[in-house]
Design goal:
Layout lengths: L17 H4 L12 H8 L9 H5 L6 H9 L3 H8 L6 H7 L21 H14 L15 E5 L3 H11 L4 E5 L8 H4 L8 H13 L3 E3 L10 H5 L4 E4 L5 E2 L12 E3 H8 L19 E5 L3 H12 L4 E5 L11 H9 L3 E3 L2 E9 L2 E15 L5 E5 L5 E4 L2 E4 L3 E2 L3 H5 L25 E3 L2 H4 L4 H21 L3
Parallel strand pairs: 1-2, 1-4, 2-3, 4-16, 6-14, 7-8, 7-14, 8-9
Antiparallel strand pairs: 5-15, 10-11, 11-12, 11-13
């Protein structure tokens, strides 16, 4: 905006001190006050092309909601965000804004971008603590029934969007709590369960039904659901962990990040002794991998009492796929990083792991991911001692649905194949999105795919044309 005084840096987010937070599971950032939020929102340049909207996978009208926040109209800001994003308290916390909306903010060309994620979180938190929000007016029922398989980020967005169109939506969830990876994967100190519950409750308030402990492919097949429902969305995520395939991997004390974090989060080991969930509380913990899941595991290890928590990653810090904020928080808390390092073998005593043999790497030419490939340095092997090791190198979709659904085409590592323009699968009436088609990506990417699917499903439900 012409003549506007530009504040070069984001309004700082107050947060727990590292030496305090490693001894509790409370959320690390405290969030903005109303005054801080309004000051930060006023940093928006109100640029006419609004690249931030295109940078958002669910197309939130970011400049419009920032303008409302700047004016102190938090209720209207919340309503505006929820037109396209039913779970802003979650995305405001776990979205990689730095590579999406904030990454294309024009302000970032010279200064720090507007703190869009922090403001989204503020608005959502304000709404949850001020019970004045009214539900959107729903259209008359269409008498069309939709089954959504999985209550993770993709599933809840599809369900919310279709419910707001008047369709009768039921989510089938394999576990006993809703949220998918938001519930079993992301720790309390990054996404409090109370926040998750509030967002899920909002989706349910739109008329969405949730059936728990229902494993599609076992409790009922996709074909059996198609006999009752007019369309199905598959959003079961990617819950099958990858392993390294190196010697010693079957030793006791070695865990997948899926199991480690599920025990800590969904099974509430973090609430010991109220919940006496068995979990490994190693004194020295090694986490292998460099994504957000690896950061979550390494930081969880400290809170479970580890004296040392180490991350082993095969590339450099520049290539680390985890969010910058998560890496910084891990470093502040004392997590140590062994970069340009690849595991070679596990060693143990009496059947229990005690050491990890590694080799040093150099970076070569870019590989298929676009990042420079790690190349082993001959004769550089060394060992690191630890009593618990967590493997966090990725995951694939569970094969249950693909094995029990004739006519459903799958691709690499069991991902479900879709038309990216509509999220249609090869099976009539069945759509898919999220990690079941990507094999592991971000919450907001799953949500973006879910919005595409919801619109395509609505068109199919109305026309019957596949």
């Amino acid at each position: 905006m012409a003549g506007k005084t530009i504040v070069p840096k984001k309004t700082p987010m107050p947060e727990q001190l590292p030496e305090v937070r490693i001894h509790n599971y409370h959320e690390v950032p405290y969030g903005y006050t109303a005054e801080q939020a309004m000051a930060e929102a006023k940093r928006c340049l109100e640029c006419p092309k609004s690249p931030c909207i295109l940078g958002c996978p669910v197309r939130v009208d970011i400049p419009a909601f920032l303008k409302l926040v700047a004016a102190g109209d938090f209720l209207s800001a919340s309503a505006l965000i929820k037109e396209t994003n039913a779970i802003p308290a979650i995305t405001g916390r776990v979205c990689p804004q730095e590579t999406q909306c904030e990454g294309v903010c024009l302000l970032s060309k010279r200064f720090e971008s507007v703190a869009i994620g922090r403001l989204e979180r503020f608005v959502a938190d304000w709404e949850s603590s001020n019970p004045v929000f009214s539900l959107p007016k729903l259209p008359p029922p269409t008498n069309k029934k939709v089954a959504v398989v999985g209550s993770g980020p993709a599933g809840v967005i599809v369900a919310a969007d279709l419910a707001r169109m008047g369709h009768d939506v039921t989510i089938f969830e394999a576990l006993h709590e809703a949220g998918g990876v938001l519930s079993y994967g992301i720790p309390e100190f990054r996404l409090p369960k109370a926040v998750l519950k509030h967002e899920i409750d909002y989706v349910r308030s739109l008329g969405v039904h949730i059936r728990f402990d229902f494993v599609v492919g076992v409790s009922a097949t996709v074909d059996e659901l198609l006999m009752e429902y007019d369309a199905i969305f598959l959003g079961t995520g990617a819950g099958t962990p990858w392993f390294l395939g190196i010697p010693g991997e079957t030793l006791s004390g070695i865990y997948s990040a899926n199991e480690y974090l599920t025990r800590a989060n969904l099974m509430k080991a973090y609430l010991y002794p109220e919940y006496d969930t068995p979990i490994a509380r190693g004194r020295r913990v090694i986490v292998i991998g460099g994504g957000n899941t690896a950061m979550d595991a390494a930081r969880t290890a400290l809170r479970l009492g580890a004296k040392k928590s180490l991350v082993v990653y095969r590339r450099s810090l520049k290539e680390l796929p985890a969010r910058l904020e998560e890496v910084e928080h891990a470093q502040q808390e004392g997590v140590q990083f062994h970069l340009l390092t690849s595991p070679v073998a596990f060693y143990g005593e009496n059947g229990r792991v005690s050491e990890l043999e590694c080799q040093r790497n150099e970076l070569g030419e870019p590989d298929s991911s676009g990042r420079r490939a790690p190349v082993a340095v001959a004769g550089s092997n060394f060992r690191i001692s630890a009593d618990v090791m967590v493997i966090a190198i990725g995951q694939s979709p569970s094969p249950i649905i693909s094995r029990t659904t004739p006519g459903l085409t799958t691709g690499k590592r069991g991902t479900v194949s879709v038309d990216p323009a509509s999220m249609k699968t090869s099976k009539k009436g069945v759509f898919a999105g999220g990690d079941i088609i990507t094999g592991g990506a971000t919450v907001i990417q799953a949500m973006g795919q879910a919005r595409i699917a919801a619109n395509a499903m609505a068109e199919y439900l109305e026309s019957g044309v596949w």
